[in-house]
Every structure is written in structure tokens, then in C-alpha cells.
Records
---
Amino acid sequence: MKITTESMLYRRQMIEMANDAKQFLKIPANIIQNEKSDATLGRIIRLMYEQRVKDADAHIEYIKSLEK
């Protein structure tokens, strides 16, 4: 029973971390420095964020599938 409890705790923590990852996005300085157009920079950042959310959601679904 202890292994199940520990694994459930670990899975909950992984889901929490994935949800937290969707809240923040770290942008490398070279992307900001190299892009001259604010509109293009905004599109790049939006694409990076959308990919982060997609990856986090996929990870959450995978972790939840382990519980079944």
C-alpha cells in the first residue's frame, strides 16, 4: 500500500508541476535581441507558449492514464 500512496503523491506532484509550467514562460535573451519587429516577437512568444501548454497538457494526460 505504501508504494501506491507514494506513487500517487508523485503523480499529483508531477501534475501540479505541469500546471505550474503553463503559468510562466522563460524567453531567451537572444530571441528578444535578434527580433526587430515587436509583432513578430509577439507571434514567436505566443507560439512558444502554446507549445508549452500543449506539452504540459499531454504530460498531464499521460500521468492521469497511469492511474487507470
Note: The CA atoms of residues 14 and 32 lie 30 Å apart.
---
Amino acid sequence: MSNRRGERALLWLLTALTLLAVGFVSLTVLRPKLTVGDGSGSWSALTGHHQVVAQASIEAGWASWGGFEMTAVEEVPGAAVAGAWLLRSSAAAGAVGAVEADRFDSPLDYLAARYPGLDLAGAALPQRLGHREQADLIVLWDITDCAALVEGRQPEIVLHNLAGFSLRRSLDFSVLAPAFDYGTLVDTGICPPR
């Protein structure tokens, strides 16, 4: 009888340890973390098109074991996503610093000048981001309703974890906001003064 109690106690202990391990793994696999990368970013108003290009350095956080797939950037009131791309470090490293956004016929021409050699079709979301991998997220925003824009309002980014669950995350980095600088939207004629 005493031997059975010892076996039961050992079984309970193994069960508890297994549950703790599963809990830890589920936190890292099922809840990926998206963080601001090296803190770099840019925001440009494309006057003739009523559009904004926002770029931010991002990183799959330490808890994102196995990585995740970034599938979309959600719209915010007053702005719709016209395109979103994830640039690997090698493509982002070739970025040209200051490029006058207004001198291009289209936003895609602007992006091609800013990131020479970039394959926009190959970088479009959805894209997989590996564990602790850094990349640049670029979002092309259509400004649709200036009255609805909130300066600095962040979009949510849709991620899919290894188990296939969809999660929404936002970055604490206002440069991705379509109305990062409402004053510039007014100065460029994209939006009227409030």
C-alpha cells in the first residue's frame, strides 16, 4: 500500500511539472511578442496622392519562440492601408536616407527610390518573422477622412502564431500612425486645419 502512495505522489508531481512546462511553452508559442527594433523609423506625406508612407524597425521579441507570420496591418479611423511590406535587414540596410516624396509620380516609385532593388511583390504581407529577427515594416496609408484621424493613433498588426491562432498587437511607436504629424498633413494640403 505504501508503494502505491509513493507512485501516486510521483505521478502527481510529474503531472504538475508537465503542466508547468506546457504553460511556459504556450506563453512563448501561442503569444508572440512584437517589439520596436532599433528605434528607427520614418514618416513621409505624399502630397499629390493624399497618402502617407510610414516605416518602423521591428523585432520578434524573445518570447516569440518559433516566430510568427505577420499577415496584415489594420486600418484606423480616417486611413486605409494601401499596402504593407516587411523588409529584411539586408533590404532595409540599402535604404537611401532623404528622398523627396513629392517628386515621384506614384507611391511605389517613391518606395523604389527609397529602397533600391527592393522586390515589393516579394516583401508584401503576409511575411514570416523568425525568433528575435529584425525587419522594417513599411505601411502605405490612404488618408480617407481627415476629421476622423487621431494624431499618433497606432494601427494593430495581425499575427499568426505557430498553432495558427490570430492575434492583434500594436507597437508603442507612433511613427507608424497615419497621422503621426497632423501639422504636416495640413501643411502639405492633404488635410484641412482643425
Note: The first helix runs from residue 2 to 30.
---
Amino acid sequence: MPVQYAPTAPSDEISMWPAELQSASLPPVCVKTGRPAWRYYTLRFVASPSGASTVFGFMAGPYLTPGAVRARLPFARRPLTVLAGLSLGRVVTSVIGVACIMVAIYVPGAPRTPLLVIGVFSAAIATWIYVAYFLQAQFGEVHHTPDGQNWVRLRRVHPNFVAAIDAWRQVREAALRDPAAYSVDLRWHWNGMQWVSTMPGATTSP
């Protein structure tokens, strides 16, 4: 039975199944820069919000929105540092803001005014950081097939990533026909004489 893929898209967009987005053999090509990936980073994508769900999706976030799809994507050092920094920053400022406000309200003798100022200021910074993180991280939308299966449309991704995914899918199909000729991570192929890389531009054996 042939492998079925989600609908095609322009060169800076690609449609993928959740199983593909969570695959350990996803090509190490940065989804944003098209350069070799430094590490993989997990994001969660939700359906394109509309109406009242826009407010809920924005405030609750992908981690609380029903139907979110988990994606383990490759990133180069710089975009990954930005995402990780924003993620850490929103947690730290949120904790500081809540802690200061709680202490100001419930601890007798605490310097209430300075704590409330710091708490409100930290909460405002946390909100700004969350907006920045949301804009950076939410470049995918969850859609559904007529029979209820989820698929994700990634937008504003690098053409090199799209090309790598297309090549990776071809390798996966070939591995289904001849699994003994491919490594478990699909990055190496036995051509009858030696192992050769399936990654673009690499030909040396492991």
C-alpha cells in the first residue's frame, strides 16, 4: 500500500503528519534557516483559531488547547537560542510576578507597594515575552482530514527544510521496499559495496 502524505504546498510551506513531526529520523536541517541543525526542539501546534477560540487559544496556549499536535523539529543554534530564551524568560517573569503579588497580599508586614509594583511589572514583561514566543513558535496549523486524522501545515519554513523532507520521504518509501539496505535512522544506505549517506551533500560511509 503506498504511503499517503498531506497536501502539497508552496516552497516555504509543507504539510506533515503528526507521526512525521515526531519521528526520530527527521532530517537535521533547520526549519527556519535551512542550515544544519544544532538540536531538536519540541513545539505544539493548534488549529487555526477563529472567533472566541482565538482568545482561549492565545491565553491558554498550545499546551492547554485541545487537539494540539506535538512536533519535534530541528533548529540551528540561533533560532533555538531565541526560542529557549523566550520560553525561560516567560516562566521566570511569571513566577516572580505571582510571587511578589502573593507576598504583598498575604504576608503581614511585607513592603506592599514595592512588591505590587514589581509584581505587576513582571507580569507585564511575562505577557510581552509570551506574545513574542507565540509569534516565533506558532508557524504551524493543525487541520483535519474528512475521516478525522490530524495533519499540520507548516508555514514560513526554509525551502531547504522542505527539500530535505521531500528527500527524506523518498528514502522512507525506499526503506519500506528494502529495509535491510537502510540504517535505522534512514541516514545511511547500503549500495551493495559500502554505506553511503542519504543526506544531501554527504557521501562518506560511517
Note: The longest strand covers residues 39-47.
---
Amino acid sequence: MRGALRNRRAREALQPDMFGAALGLWLLFLVGAVFYVRRARHPEVKPVAAYLIFIIVFTAVSFVLFGAFAALLQLAGWAGVLATPIGAAVFLIAVFLPALLAARWQLRKPPMGSPRP
């Protein structure tokens, strides 16, 4: 009984508040990314292609990390940490920072078939 109650609390900690915050930050970031991609893209990549590369990589990496970290927290019984603002902020940084770095790396790569320096 005690384990079932702990698991229910862990699931409730990841429910609408955390998902809504992550979704809102993701949408705001994608709108703001238009300006970043315009400056940071490789010169040989077209702007629309660069933006699509950036949002696809960012979305895929953040989706995988969000699911993996949420599952690990639930398995470890630490999902209650996400109920605090500090815990939620650390979780979102742990999800979105690697996603940003991976998307930035892909954005700055030269297109396939271009000569290497």
C-alpha cells in the first residue's frame, strides 16, 4: 500500500504543471529561435532549411531527454522533487540545455557535399 501511494504521488508530480511549463517554454523558444538561427547558421545553408534543422533537432533531443529523465525520476522515487520550483527549473535546464547545444551544433555544420577547409 505504501509503495502504491508513493508511485501515485510520483505520477501526479509530473502531470499537467510540469508538462505545461515545458510546452510553454518550448513554444516560446521556437518563436525566439528564428532570430538566433538567422545569425548563427552556416553561410551556405538557406535560412528556412537552417531553421527546420534547428527545431527538429531541438525538439527531438528535448522530447527524448524529457521522457528519459521523467522516467528515471519516477523509478527512483524522486518525482516529488519536481513539485518545487527549484527542482522543476533544474529539470527543465537539464532537458533544454543539451537540446540547445545539439541543435546549435547541427545548425553550424556545413551542408553535406561542401568542401572541407
Note: Helices lie at 2-13, 16-40, 47-76, 85-108.
